[in-house]
Structures are given as structure tokens and as C-alpha cells.
Write a structure and sequence with these properties.
Blueprint lengths: L1 H29 L2 H29 L9
Length: 70
């Protein structure tokens, strides 16, 4: 029973990956190259935004050198 479950789970994952790949290819066929260029730039900007927030939080949480020393 466990082996059968593992087999169909692996098969389902393979089909999900294939569906994702085909969906991406369909979008590439419909949308112009400029769309993908802008999407990549937007993704990069979003990641940079998150990194900036995380860096800010880390600076607030990390005591500066010499702080708290008497």
C-alpha cells in the first residue's frame, strides 16, 4: 500500500511539473519578449525590496559595536 502511494505521488508530481512547463511555454508563445523582460525586472526589484527590509531589521536587531559597554 505504501509503495503504491509513493508511486502515484511521484507520478502526480511528474504530471504537475509537465503541466507547469507546458503552461510556461504557452505563455511564452502568447506574450511578447518585452513582457518577459519587464517581468524579470519587476521580480528583481521585488527581491531587492525584501532584502532592504530584512537588512533594516537586522541593523535594528544587531547591537552596534561598543553599544552598551561602559
Amino acid at each position: 500500500m505504501a509503495e503504491a502511494r509513493k508511486r502515484w505521488q511521484e507520478e502526480a508530481r511528474a504530471h504537475a511539473r509537465a503541466a507547469s512547463r507546458e503552461f510556461r511555454e504557452a505563455l511564452k508563445a502568447v506574450l511578447p519578449d518585452r513582457f518577459w523582460q519587464h517581468l524579470k525586472a519587476a521580480r528583481r526589484e521585488a527581491l531587492l525590496s525584501v532584502r532592504t527590509v530584512l537588512d533594516g531589521w537586522l541593523e535594528e536587531e544587531t547591537p552596534s559595536a561598543g553599544a552598551g559597554r561602559s
